[in-house]
């Protein structure tokens, strides 16, 4: 109980006022401990040690010494090309009482809201992790003054105040923290995942730095709107209306200086420079990576200079001086609107620990917090400056605080009174489109022909139609490969819906299997992007496009390369649910994968990535071992409003050929019965249901004759959908055979077969005459040498023996 009292007192102490000194001659500061002792004396037992003496404290990270508007203006003129006359537009804020009052109220809202959050957390009304922004209020103050509603905003887990500054109402933000249905995300997101579609506030992302490529993708969506002459309707669906001539929307991303050391930072700076993205990176530099002193782990904390060798200007400002931050912020934002990407680093101090539950054992942190509250509070700096120069009276600012705190109190009341979300909502938010959706019935955009006509030249259109005609002839003749079938589906869908885009490495050359062949040559770099060799980066950019009205396709070449993008794939799966159903996530990831016998690719190219992603919620995961399956599933996935992942067999991409049911979408929840056991074998008890996928399909098909020679037969089911799993088809076959074998292209531990076997044992146990037989890859890495590989990778000969064993040993 005393811990809770102490924590609550600490929260209140964070907002108390004390004298602030602007002109400190050195980095040493005098701190009095008597005020904290007095504050706590009524709530906890004070230690016997005397605390009234004054001590000299030198912060590990000193403030920006003698930093003034002259430092800021010099950077704006030298790095951003502004003239002194240009800057008068921004310095006018110093004499703009109304504008300054707005800035003060926005900062007070940030402080008051976070203090209320801390109090509600201590009372148990807010659960889980929570990260507060006290001490950094100049940043939301600037955002509220400089950013427009239509700008796309991406933040990280400390985003409450960024959402408020972006125009999100305090009540729904607080209700989201209270896990209430009245929250921005209906209680599905929580403190770290605030999203609000009407204000284009697009997160709230909890994995450090993941928001960077998402924001780059959102910036790319603005360029796509301009190039395709499309805009958002009231539901943010694309309509055939060009953005206004003066469209100056930008994408804004917030990140800490610790997170800025992540490699994603270099990647988005490269992308921003290459495509001249309207992207502003706001670096919140509080000197702490979680609680660790950032210079302890990073050699260079001057993040604003990272863009120099990309041609991207940066600026450093002092977060204690909110008016200067806002003036500089407006100038930098205007630069991004008219010229190109930029970085703005705000030197600030965070008054609270990483989270209320944070032990804060790192060196120097506790003393620094106390010192920063006394000496680096942007609210006290603002009050002192603008009361002393006569802009405001104490009574005016007191009235403003009272007004803001009333809003905060109302937000807490709104959250308290909101109902909890219904339990059924969790399952409803699993997928944007139901698993049994018939994608053939989805209409194409009415504007497709008009957009194609104005973005694809006559010569390009002739070339691509000839290419499509050639592939369709092959498909009808049974001569099309899996790679070409996917390429055909992609082109048909990109013409059908011009909001479809594609990202891949080696895209111009068609990648390894011709999947993206002729996409850039037809649709241009704006829709068909050749990417740097980092799958996480371009999966992340695709996610940002998907949140903003586009349908990105990501071609991975080899699906194992997707390991680089696990964070982004995971977030894609979670987005629809986490946002309370606000944001669809139409993204199709396609690649060649799996492990064939005698593959000779070694361990890294033979990993069962399909098993790795099985545990990610919200993904639809399919496989295709034939051109027909690859074509129909690809078309459906591109039309689906959620994230889908198609795995094709790496060693069969050019080998397997067949016919295709043209212009037809296949379901994303159905397996396929490729061979049915004879009635005689079923009657004799010599039939087995075989479940397999990818290369296992070929291995099974070539084994059927040998199995039949042994007097047995199989129902061969291709698991075209791993998630959701088609238990109906499996049950129907088991009702005939009562025996089942899984030829699995993943490891015994944690593999696809393990999941399927468990489901069969739980749901279809009464249909089994024998235990489920699993033929899985061994847990050992896949060797290169074929002699050793036999010990790891199962094949047709193993299946034949398994069928014999099942039929011989069944009850």
Summed over residues and divided by their number, the pLDDT gives a mean of 92
Number of helical runs?
30
Q: How many domains in all? A: 3
CATH second-level architecture of the largest domain: 3-Layer(aba) Sandwich
Query: What's the total number of strands?
Result: 27
Describe the biggest sheet? 7 strands, mixed
Assign a percent range to the helix content. Answer: 40-55%
User: Which superfamily, in CATH terms, is the homologous superfamily of the largest domain?
Assistant: Thiamin diphosphate (ThDP)-binding fold, Pyr/PP domains
What is the percentage of strand-forming residues?
A: 5-15%
> Alpha-carbon distance between the termini?
62 Å
Spatially, the strands of the biggest sheet line up as 4-5-3-8-9-13-12
The CATH topology of the largest domain is given as: Rossmann fold
In CATH's first tier, which class of the largest domain applies?
Answer: Alpha Beta
What does the overall shape look like? elongated
Class inferred from helices and paired strands = alpha/beta
Low-confidence stretches: 1-54
Radius of gyration: 30 Å
């Amino acid at each position: 109980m005393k811990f809770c009292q102490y924590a609550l007192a600490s929260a209140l102490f964070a907002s108390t006022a004390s004298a602030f000194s602007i002109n400190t001659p050195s980095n040493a500061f005098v701190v009095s401990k008597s005020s904290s002792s007095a504050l706590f004396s009524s709530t906890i037992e004070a230690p016997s040690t005397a605390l009234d003496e004054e001590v000299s404290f030198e912060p590990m990270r000193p403030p920006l010494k003698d930093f003034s508007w002259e430092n800021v203006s010099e950077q704006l003129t030298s790095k951003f090309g502004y003239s002194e006359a240009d800057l008068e537009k921004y310095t006018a804020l110093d004499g703009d009482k109304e504008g300054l009052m707005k800035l003060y109220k926005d900062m007070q809202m940030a402080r008051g809201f976070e203090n209320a959050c801390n109090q509600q957390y201590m009372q148990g009304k807010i659960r889980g992790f929570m990260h507060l922004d006290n001490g950094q209020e100049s940043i939301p103050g600037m955002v509220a003054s400089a950013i427009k509603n239509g700008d796309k905003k991406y933040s990280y887990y400390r985003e409450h105040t960024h959402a408020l500054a972006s125009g999100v109402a305090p009540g729904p933000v607080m209700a989201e923290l209270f896990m209430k249905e009245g929250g921005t995300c209906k209680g599905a997101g929580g403190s770290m995942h605030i999203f609000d579609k009407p204000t284009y506030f697009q997160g709230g992302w909890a994995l450090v730095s993941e928001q960077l490529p998402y924001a780059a993708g959102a910036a790319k969506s603005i360029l796509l709107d301009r190039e395709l002459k499309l805009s958002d309707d009231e539901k943010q669906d694309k309509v055939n209306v060009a953005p206004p001539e003066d469209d100056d929307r930008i994408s804004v991303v917030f990140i800490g200086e610790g997170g800025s050391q992540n490699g994603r930072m270099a990647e988005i700076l490269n992308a921003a420079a290459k495509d001249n993205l309207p992207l502003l990176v706001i670096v919140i530099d509080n000197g702490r990576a979680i609680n660790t002193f950032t210079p302890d782990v990073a050699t260079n904390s001057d993040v604003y200079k990272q863009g120099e060798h990309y041609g991207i200007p940066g600026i450093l400002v002092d977060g204690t001086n909110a008016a200067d931050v806002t003036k500089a912020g407006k100038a930098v934002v205007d630069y991004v609107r008219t010229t190109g990407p930029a970085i703005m680093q705000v030197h600030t101090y965070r008054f609270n620990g990483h989270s209320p539950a944070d032990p804060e054992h790192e060196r120097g942190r506790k003393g620094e917090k106390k010192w920063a509250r006394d000496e680096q509070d942007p609210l006290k700096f603002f009050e002192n400056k603008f009361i002393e120069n006569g802009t405001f009276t104490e009574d005016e600012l007191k009235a403003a605080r009272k007004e803001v705190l009333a809003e905060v109190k109302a937000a807490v009341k709104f959250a308290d009174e909101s109902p909890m979300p219904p339990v059924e909502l969790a399952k409803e938010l699993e997928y944007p489109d139901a698993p049994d959706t018939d994608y053939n019935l989805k209409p194409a955009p009415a504007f497709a022909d008009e957009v194609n006509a104005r973005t694809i030249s006559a010569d390009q259109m002739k070339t691509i139609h000839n290419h499509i005609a050639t592939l369709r002839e092959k498909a009808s003749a049974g001569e099309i490969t899996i790679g070409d079938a996917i390429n055909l589906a992609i082109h048909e869908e990109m013409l059908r819906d011009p909001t479809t885009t594609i990202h891949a490495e080696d895209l111009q050359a068609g990648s390894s299997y011709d999947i993206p062949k002729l996409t850039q040559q037809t649709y241009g770099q704006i829709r068909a992007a050749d990417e740097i060799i980092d799958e996480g980066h371009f999966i992340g950019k695709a996610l940002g496009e998907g949140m903003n009205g586009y349908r990105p396709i990501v071609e991975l070449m080899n699906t194992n390369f997707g390991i680089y993008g696990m964070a982004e794939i995971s977030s894609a799966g979670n987005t629809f649910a986490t946002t309370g159903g606000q944001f669809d996530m139409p993204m199709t990831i396609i690649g060649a994968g799996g492990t064939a016998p005698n593959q000779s690719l070694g361990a890294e190219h033979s990993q069962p990535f399909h098993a790795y992603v099985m545990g990610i919620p919200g993904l639809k995961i399919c496989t295709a071992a034939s051109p027909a399956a690859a074509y129909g599933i690809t078309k459906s996935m591109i039309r689906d409003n959620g994230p889908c992942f198609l795995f094709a067999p790496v060693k069969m991409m050019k080998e397997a050929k067949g016919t295709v049911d043209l212009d037809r979408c296949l379901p994303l929840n159905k397996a396929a019965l490729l061979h049915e056991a004879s009635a005689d074998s079923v009657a004799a008890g010599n039939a087995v249901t075989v479940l397999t996928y990818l290369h296992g399909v070929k291995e099974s098909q070539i084994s059927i004759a040998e199995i039949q020679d042994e007097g047995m037969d199989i129902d061969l089911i291709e698991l075209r959908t791993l998630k959701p799993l088609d238990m109906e088809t499996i049950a129907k076959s088991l009702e005939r055979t009562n025996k089942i074998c899984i030829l699995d292209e993943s490891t015994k531990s944690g593999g696809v077969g393990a999941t399927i076997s468990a489901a069969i044992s739980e749901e279809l146990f009464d249909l089994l005459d024998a235990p489920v037989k699993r033929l899985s890859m061994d847990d050992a890495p896949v060797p290169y040498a074929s002699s050793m590989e036999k010990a790891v990778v199962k094949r047709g000969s193993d299946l034949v023996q398994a069928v014999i064993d099942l039929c011989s040993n069944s009850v």
